[in-house]
Request: fold
Amino acid sequence: MNNSKNILLLGAPGSGKGTQAKLLETELNYQRIDTGSLIRQAISEKTDLGLQALDYVNAGKLVPDELIIAMVISHAKNIQDNGGKILLDGFPRNIKQAEALVENNIVLNKVININIPFDKLTKRIVGRRLCTNKSCGAVYHVDFQPSKVIDICDICHSPLMQRNDDREELVNARIETYMTETKPLNEYYEKANILINIDGDKEVTHIFEDIKNSL
Ligand code: AMP
Reply:
């Protein structure tokens, strides 16, 4: 059934990529490279990358390619050299990043594009809440998947938080960045014959089944 080695998850912000990526990681043993989380961690640790990325993230823009490409390629090579299956989540975000994968012989076998009607994205993003305990990382939604106790994680009882860039005033900028920079990747991978479109407007478990069946 599952004979796809390296895969990429594509989709607009709020499409549910992160939730599906976690399932692929835990249930199918993919090793996930989640550039958004790596960047947020760098920002909270005030590393060079974090300090340089902060203004871009807070403007809903992509951080410059030269800050991100080398880091992802090195993670990916490590996984590949150890015989693991790579799951890219949040990279590539533009054609230049996609070409960097090709240049570095990181071959993608399948690209899963999660589709959500555009008018639903804002509500999905603004209501999202994350567990502050990084080793837990549970994700909730104030309306669609609320925690039992408001703002407290059901699993580890740590406080929940809203991502800074999930605030309503930044969401339009992020969606616009997606439209201009990232969406062209759908066509890029369609031409390469590896794009799979998945309906993301369903129950999480149904979407995961659809993804598994497509691999
Ligand atoms: P995400 O958690 O994937 O929504 O990413 C959060 C933010 O991190 C994005 O809005 C970008 O500012 C930045 N980011 C994540 N991945 C990339 C990437 N591959 N290239 C450039 N910027 C990125």
